[in-house]
Amino acid sequence: MSLKFRILLVEDNVDHAELTELALKQNIKGIEIDKTFTADETIAKISNSPDNNYDLMILDYSLPGKDGLAVLDSICQKKLSLPVIIVTGQGNERVAVQAMKKGAFDYIVKSPGYLMTLPVTVKKALAEKHLENKLERTEQYYQNLVECANDGIYSLDVQGRITFVNRKVEQLTGFTRRELIGRYFKDLLVEEERVKIKRWIKQVRRKHLLENLETRVLTKAGRQIPVEINLAARNNGDVISGYYGVARDISMRLQWEAERRQRNEEIRRMNEELVSKNRELERLNQIKSQFVSNVSHELRTPLNGILGYAELLRDGLYGQVNEEQVKALQNVIACGHHLLDLINEILDFSKIQDGRMRLEREVCSVYDILEAVIATVKPTIREKNLNLILSVENKLPVINVDPRKIYQVFLNIIGNSIKFTEKGEIEIGAQKHDNEILFFVRDTGIGMKEEDVNKIFGEFLQLDGSISRKYGGTGLGLSLAKHFVEMHNGKIWVKSKWREGSTFYVSLPYEKDANIESSNITNKRKGKTVTAPGFFGI
């Protein structure tokens, strides 16, 4: 679009707002985007905005404090002519229906690839807004004509000769008033239209009023002008003494109607394009999911065979191996397990994206899960010569979770801390807190910059290219951890300082009447057994 449009983007997540702005500006030319982050800020902005100078609002339903429906209510109360596209999360279709009832133009679900469909919906909304503005201006234009008596007003005698015209008729026809008075009205029409006036006059004699008669006026310069006329009988008692009427130039209206038909056709094509793209996205998503699943399974099968034979070789089943060969085989096995973990992460992520991930809950001991994770990471901790500190409270209740996924959560978090900690310590803690168990993993690693903290749980994210090259990884580990925790109605967050280390927190709910288990985990510091603290501070 070559026109200038102003859009108000309401999104509490700064990263999402930036991505949305980028997607829109890449697909739609000539737009200006203002951003707000809360409902109150948005309501204040549109209230103070002169003449409601926004063409469109993109409104995220989930806002801190008041939600997006509160903003819609405010727009309705102020009677603002502002189309709103509401953005909802997966499963919020009920909210979308409410929003549409409150006057929202359309809604978009935050599904994979929604940033590809959003620009199409925005184009449609702006096109309709542009058309609406043009129609409003047209209506205003005709209203001003009536207010100023700027239509052509005329009167005829019983024979159809002109007896009076106003200034507009002069302007319309190009004839002066003197030239018009006494002429037959039919002579002002193009030749093929002249037969109509005789028929109309006969009808007026019976009905006394005819409205919206369209014809074409032939001007003094020979131009044909489409006009709409009203014709009424002027009575002198029971006798018709003449006729009077109003003539209106409808050139602009016909042009606008043609443009409107063209716009409607464009909107229809946009709708078809949107439906087609949605179908294509669904098809591609299914293909992608099937491809990832097939490739993952195809990779895992031979990889498991390679690992099995490598372990048999290392253990001497096929003959004696020397120390150097054992070390080489151990490296092969370690690399194979690392690759297997990456494949599993990608497969899990694909299942989450498609909504195929399910929880297999069972009652589990916190200590058993932590023991399993610690047993897995201990060799790496020893290899890097790090200190492991356990600060796990005694008598923690059992939790009803999917043990494999919670194990994976802590393995990913602790593994991440070990990966980015070259020296110092890793501390693992847990305590009962209200109706949840609060875990933490603290490290003395490289930490994160303040602007990167909110990005750490993003998908396929490594905060720095040099870090990615040095430490490796898919960037999915912490994203999967976040998904798994939230599937358990838990929370995960991080506090970090650059070059001072990071602390990851995980809260998982438990039932108040859950069984209580005593801790059998001992705290290790520099190889010595010490008593685990009863609590930790956040």
Please give a structural write-up.
It is a single chain. It is elongated, with a radius of gyration of 38 Å. It has helices at 14-27, 39-48, 68-77, 93-101, 114-147, 167-173, 177-180, 194-207, 251-314, 323-354, 366-383, 403-419, 465-471, 477-487, and strands at 5-10, 31-36, 56-60, 84-88, 106-109, 152-156, 162-165, 209-218, 224-236, 239-249, 362-364, 387-392, 396-397, 399-401, 425-433, 436-443, 491-497, 501-509, 516-517, 523-525, 528-530. Helix 2 (39-48) packs parallel to helix 3, helix 11 (366-383) packs parallel to helix 12 and helix 12 (403-419) runs antiparallel to helix 14 (477-487). The strands form six sheets. A five-stranded parallel beta sheet has the order 2-1-3-4-5, with helices on both faces. It has a five-stranded antiparallel beta sheet with strand order 7-6-10-9-8. It folds into four domains: 5-146, Response regulator (Rossmann fold), CATH 3.40.50.2300; 149-249, Beta-Lactamase (2-Layer Sandwich); 258-354, Helix Hairpins (Orthogonal Bundle); 362-530, Heat Shock Protein 90 (2-Layer Sandwich). With 538 residues, the chain is α/β, with parallel strands linked by helices. The chain starts with a strand and ends in an 8-residue tail after the last strand. Residues 522-538 have low confidence and may be disordered.
